Backbone:
């Protein structure tokens, strides 16, 4: 076994190359707001600029095929890229691009050659930003129960409905959306995926006021929105994966979303919090309290387990190993440990973790944001209850037939 | 990065699985649990014949010099039994301790016989003030001629009933010494402890004289050598617990399919599913913390923190995985013939072995720089 993400001279060289490239190409003036909602337009544009620069090297979507604008890099180099981007406080992509992150692997599996050529290169090169549109006011966990319709009319689908908990601040170029193409059809056999250009007439975007963004640190997503479709005509060729075949296509999308890809360099806040508790002010440190020390050790252990689950999933997905329950397991762990960690932080450090006050709030408000974000993170990409259902089905609890994980490349 | 097993490890895994399937049927293990003395004549010769007692020993001393990860792959499978016996005490823990502490002559004398299974070593460390820290070692090594004399008692000693030799930590004027004592010598009494416990004994010493040739390594060097040996041996024991988690996981999944209530398999009930989700989470937490620690050790990296994390996680995971398995199994789970209680008992018996989770957490406080 080899857990090293940097072990060969070739990889060391690559890391040095990435680090030096970032030193030269990280746009001047990039700042890190703790709360993604505080990221202004100018900061967003700087991240997009970095995205385009990364994209031109195939580093924005490093494991995607080069033919479609990716880097076709092996797992070790992909890990190094994620790692180095995280070192400068960003994620890969360095802006919210959930639509791209989920759509790209899905289109790779389900799209026609024409779809791949049309949609993947702009995503991988950072030329477009894409949202994902799944949840609706009456369909959260029960995704198959969505009501937004896309009815074929000549050379287009006419879309009507509302999606919620969508995207980010500062708009998007595309919306990767699941819709009902056969309102009278059987459940699970009536859905399709559309890549909807956001400049079409009839689309309106209304921001939602949420406690926090929910587990997207580093990508700076900002506010979530409601998106309304009012007789929006989407060209028919923007339907991906076959009409009424959307539930099968969704298995790939959801696999990516449910943590199947593994997120690296996560939970930095824990390590910084431990450091904070170690620091002495007026001769005293939070860690002087034996009870606090014991809980800090627990935080560390939890961070280690979550990191290792992410590493395992990353390895599984990037080396095309068979996967089963691992994506949902990681996602569940991350959500539940988030709550547990935020409670421990509250116990260890007291009410200061609840404020982002410049004088009293620790780590520039990062801890306060974690308190809100841990709770908000419970729902995106499926609730903890749904994650448990997925794990059980994949393991084959109570059934001889094990449900298969969605195909990822 | 490659989190898979290499070819050697796959072969080890395969032959270990064959062994557990073949020689360690549920009935066999339930019977050995009732009559542990039979392990010496039934399981032990087979383990030895497969060459497993020499895996952690370098070729120069009659072993095969495998990596710790190789050894752990074996122990993960032995843990699925759980296969009882002194294999870990002798082949891993004491083997490493002799390697760390012994002088060249001692290594030449004992290790080949340990690898060949002729000698079976067990570690006698813990006492009435139970613990795996130096201050817990109080047994006196009183000066006697050129050697020393032992009077006193060790307790919760693993596998002493099966041992031919004991490695005893005792306190002399200069510090903690490591002594080899013939387990069948006059004055040594091994009394197995009965109860919800597997393989633990009280070992008492009455005027037991230890010659200078049985002082393992340097005087007062016992504890340092032990710490180094523990670092390497601990994650192998963790792998055994990973195997235990895996076994109760598989038992529980199987049972969730076969057992029917209210007209359907109980695994269709989400409450039952939740128990199994807990089990798989414990299994994987133990697995990946353990194998990362092993990889660090085999690669010569600083592994101390990872080893402490792994031991704390694996001990608790095994215990809790068994508890959740009992929630799934209910009544049948406590029928001894069913076999689940072998794991439950083992998870308790090994919980403190090589240091309880709280001890490892204490070490982590130091390593994370949290001490005042």
Residues:
């Amino acid at each position: 076994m080899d857990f090293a993400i940097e072990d060969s001279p070739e990889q060391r060289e690559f890391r040095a190359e990435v680090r030096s490239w970032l030193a030269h190409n990280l746009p001047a003036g990039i700042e890190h707001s703790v709360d993604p909602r505080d990221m202004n337009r100018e900061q967003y544009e700087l991240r997009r600029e970095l995205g385009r620069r990364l994209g031109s090297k195939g580093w924005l979507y490093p494991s995607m095929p080069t033919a479609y604008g990716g880097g076709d890099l092996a797992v070790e180099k992909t890990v190094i890229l994620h790692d180095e981007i995280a070192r400068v406080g960003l994620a890969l992509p360095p802006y919210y691009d959930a639509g791209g992150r989920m759509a790209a692997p899905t289109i790779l599996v389900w799209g026609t050659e024409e779809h791949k050529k049309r949609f993947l290169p702009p995503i991988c090169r950072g030329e477009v930003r894409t949202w994902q549109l799944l949840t609706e006011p009456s369909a959260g966990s029960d995704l198959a129960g969505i009501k937004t319709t896309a009815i074929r009319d000549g050379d287009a689908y006419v879309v009507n409905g509302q999606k919620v908990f969508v995207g980010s601040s500062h708009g998007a170029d595309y919306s990767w959306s699941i819709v009902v193409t056969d309102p009278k059809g059987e459940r699970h056999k009536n859905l399709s995926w559309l890549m909807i250009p956001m400049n079409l007439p009839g689309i309106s975007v209304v921001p939602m006021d949420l406690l926090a963004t929910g587990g997207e640190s580093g990508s700076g997503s900002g506010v979530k929105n409601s998106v309304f479709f009012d007789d929006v005509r989407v060209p028919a060729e923007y339907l991906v994966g076959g009409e009424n075949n959307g539930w099968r296509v969704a298995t790939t999308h959801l696999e990516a979303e449910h943590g199947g890809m593994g997120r690296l360099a996560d939970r930095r806040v824990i390590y910084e919090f431990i450091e904070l508790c170690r620091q002495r002010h007026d001769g005293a440190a939070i860690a002087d309290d034996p009870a606090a020390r014991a809980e800090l050790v627990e935080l560390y252990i939890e961070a280690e387990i979550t990191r290792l689950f992410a590493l395992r999933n990353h390895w599984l997905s990037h080396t095309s190993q068979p996967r089963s329950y691992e994506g949902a397991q990681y996602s569940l762990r991350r959500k539940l440990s988030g709550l547990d960690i935020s409670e421990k932080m509250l116990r260890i450090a007291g009410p200061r973790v609840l404020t982002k006050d410049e004088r009293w709030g620790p780590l520039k408000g990062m801890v306060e944001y974690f308190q809100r974000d841990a709770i908000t993170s419970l729902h995106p990409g499926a609730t903890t209850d749904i994650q448990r259902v997925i794990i059980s089905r994949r393991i084959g609890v109570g059934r001889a037939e094990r449900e298969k994980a969605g195909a990822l490349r | 990065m490659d989190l898979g097993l290499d070819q050697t490890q796959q072969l080890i895994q395969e032959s270990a699985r064959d062994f557990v399937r073949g020689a360690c049927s549920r009935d066999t293990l339930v019977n050995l649990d009732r009559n542990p003395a039979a392990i010496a004549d039934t399981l032990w010769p087979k383990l030895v014949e497969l060459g497993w007692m020499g895996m952690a020993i370098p070729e120069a001393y009659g072993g095969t010099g495998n990596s710790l990860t190789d050894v752990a792959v074996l122990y993960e499978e032995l843990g699925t039994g759980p296969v009882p016996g002194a294999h870990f005490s002798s082949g891993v823990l004491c083997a490493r301790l002799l390697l760390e502490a012994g002088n060249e002559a001692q290594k030449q004398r004992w290790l080949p016989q340990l690898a060949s299974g002729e000698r079976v070593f067990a570690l006698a460390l813990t006492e009435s003030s139970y613990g795996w820290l130096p201050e817990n070692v109080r047994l006196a090594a009183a000066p006697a001629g050129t050697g020393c004399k032992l009077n006193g008692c060790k307790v919760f000693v693993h596998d002493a009933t099966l041992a031919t030799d004991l490695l005893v930590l005792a306190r002399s004027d200069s510090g903690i010494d490591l002594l080899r004592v013939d387990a069948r010598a006059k004055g040594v009494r091994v009394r197995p402890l009965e109860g919800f416990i597997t393989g633990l004994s009280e070992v008492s010493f009455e005027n037991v004289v230890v010659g200078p040739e049985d002082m393992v390594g340097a005087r007062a060097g016992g504890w340092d050598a032990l710490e180094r040996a523990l670092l390497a041996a601990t994650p192998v024991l963790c792998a055994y617990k990973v195997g235990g988690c895996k076994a109760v996981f598989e038992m529980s999944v199987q049972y969730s399919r076969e057992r029917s209530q209210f007209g359907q398999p109980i695994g269709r009930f989400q409450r039952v599913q939740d128990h199994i989700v807990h089990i798989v989470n414990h299994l994987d937490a133990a697995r990946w913390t353990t194998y990362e620690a092993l990889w660090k050790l085999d690669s010569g990296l600083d592994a101390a923190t990872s080893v402490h994390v792994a031991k704390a996680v694996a001990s608790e995971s095994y215990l809790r995985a068994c508890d959740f398995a009992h929630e799934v199994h209910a009544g049948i789970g406590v029928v001894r013939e069913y076999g689940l209680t072998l794991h439950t008992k083992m998870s308790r018996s090994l919980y403190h072995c090589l240091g309880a989770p709280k001890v490892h957490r204490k070490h982590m406080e130091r390593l994370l720089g949290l001490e005042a």
